[in-house]
């Protein structure tokens, strides 16, 4: 159903782009026909990309489609925003063209037969000359409104072409900027969180938090190596990978994950599943085993004790809500039940919305991802309708929750208004 809905939306978007960028900017002829087939081809490329990415096609085969998806999105957004000013400008031009009086049409000069005097010449009109055969009866004498209509048509065409040019430049510029951000180094976000009941011996404990790495057909091994290098440079006590690590099976992406074996931290690296780990037919189980071989422990509705300077912090992790369909629902009671309530607890949960259940179990801090911070503005406004926090630190139902924007991207290799992030989070008492 999601794929069908997405295809319908994309089809409507291409129809709108054809109307605005082709139909309204060209006349009938070869150019319009060529551009129309171009729009059809782009739609086909995008659909093939969406299907191919699920089938594990190589990155070079899906890059064009995903880049066009981003360009298409911003073309639609910019054109929709420009509808109002374009409409106002069109109305103003229409009024001006209507207020300009039609130019007088000069009658064709009379042709006087040789030998006819001046007096006779003054009395001969165009109709008489036509009847006499000196001027063809079919002579094209423009009607009084033709020049006004031509002027209005010229102004409309200029306005539509200007609108299309603005949208094209804006979309290409925005996508270019967004690709540079998505493919560049993640931003290091330092965050300090005060936990009221934190044992003071745990003050200063530091977590390197990363999520939504999204190893897949558009990322190379350099993407993983860079993230590992940047995390190691933070010298964190704990590394927390908060879901959506991969977009494929171990057979497809195992090589891209190998650099994770070089993660460095005092008390280890931990992982919880995100919704994308459940998208493959194999499920997350094979990745849990693969990560264990790489030295990353998965917390599947369980918790561990982090002992630091003689004090203990409970670190718990729950499955993503997407695991319910696979029989692996998040189980907060299993992960958090029977613990010492006097200890501070940090929970790893992929989606911020899970904080509502965390609050019922006395969690002090939840670390999440999933949202990408919106990834492509203005999607951040849409994400806010589904999740209680889009990015950053907030308090929900008495529980502090930090939502990282993620270090990778999903779909188009583009980030606008939400640069990739690795968080260094320090606990304070």
UniProtKB/TrEMBL annotation:
The membrane-spanning stretches of this chain are 6-22, 34-53, 65-85
Residue ranges of every copy of the Calcineurin-like phosphoesterase domain listed in the record: 205-373
Q: Does the keyword Metal-binding apply?
A: yes
The molecular function terms of the Gene Ontology recorded here are:
metal ion binding; UDP-2,3-diacylglucosamine hydrolase activity
Which Pfam families does the record match to this protein?
Metallophos
Would I find Nuclease among this entry's keywords? Answer: no
Provide the GO biological process annotations: lipid A biosynthetic process
Q: Which cofactor does it need?
A: a divalent metal cation
Record CDD domains: MPP_YkuE_C
What UniProt keywords are attached to this protein's entry? Hydrolase, Membrane, Metal-binding, Transmembrane, Transmembrane helix
- State any GO CC term: membrane
**Into which family does the record put it?**
Belongs to the metallophosphoesterase superfamily.
- Quote the protein name from its UniProt record: Calcineurin-like phosphoesterase domain-containing protein
Which source organism? Nonomuraea fuscirosea
């Amino acid at each position: 159903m999601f794929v069908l809905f997405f295809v319908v939306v994309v089809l409507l978007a291409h129809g709108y782009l054809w109307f605005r960028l082709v139909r309204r900017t060209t006349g009938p002829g070869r150019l319009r026909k060529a551009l129309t087939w171009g729009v059809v081809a782009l739609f086909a490329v995008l659909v093939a990309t969406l299907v191919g990415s699920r089938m594990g096609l190589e990155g070079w085969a899906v890059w064009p489609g995903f880049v066009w998806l981003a360009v298409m999105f911003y073309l639609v957004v910019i054109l929709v925003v420009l509808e109002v000013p374009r409409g106002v400008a069109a109305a103003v031009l229409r009024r001006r063209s209507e207020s300009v009086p039609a130019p007088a049409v000069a009658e064709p000069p009379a042709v006087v037969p040789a030998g006819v005097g001046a007096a006779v010449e003054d009395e001969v009109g165009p109709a008489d000359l036509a009847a006499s055969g000196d001027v063809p009866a079919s002579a094209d004498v423009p009607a009084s409104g033709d020049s006004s209509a031509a002027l209005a048509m010229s102004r409309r065409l200029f306005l539509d072409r200007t609108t299309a040019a603005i949208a094209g430049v804006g979309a290409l510029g925005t996508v270019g900027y967004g690709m540079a951000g998505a493919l560049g180094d993640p931003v290091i976000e330092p965050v300090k969180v005060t936990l009221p009941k934190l044992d003071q011996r745990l003050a200063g404990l530091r977590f390197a938090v990363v999520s939504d790495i999204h190893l897949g057909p558009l990322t190379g091994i350099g993407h993983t190596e860079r993230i590992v290098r940047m995390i190691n440079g933070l010298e964190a006590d704990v590394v927390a990978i908060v879901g959506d690590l991969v977009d494929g099976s171990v057979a497809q992406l195992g090589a891209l994950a190998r650099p994770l074996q070089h993660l460095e931290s005092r008390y280890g690296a931990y992982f919880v599943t995100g919704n994308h780990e459940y998208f493959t037919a194999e499920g997350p189980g094979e990745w849990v085993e693969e990560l264990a071989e790489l030295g990353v422990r998965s917390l599947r509705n369980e918790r561990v004790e982090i002992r630091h300077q003689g004090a203990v912090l409970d670190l718990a992790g729950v499955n993503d809500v997407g695991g319910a369909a696979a029989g692996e629902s998040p189980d907060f009671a299993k992960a958090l039940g029977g613990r010492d309530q006097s200890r501070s607890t940090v929970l790893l949960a992929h989606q911020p919305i899970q904080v509502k259940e965390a609050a019922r179990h006395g969690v002090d801090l939840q670390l999440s991802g999933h949202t990408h911070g919106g990834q492509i503005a203005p999607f951040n406004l849409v994400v806010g309708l589904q999740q209680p926090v889009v990015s950053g630190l907030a308090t929900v139902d008495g529980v502090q929750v930090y939502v990282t924007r993620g270090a990778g991207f999903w779909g188009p290799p583009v980030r606008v208004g939400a640069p990739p992030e690795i968080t260094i989070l320090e606990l304070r008492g």
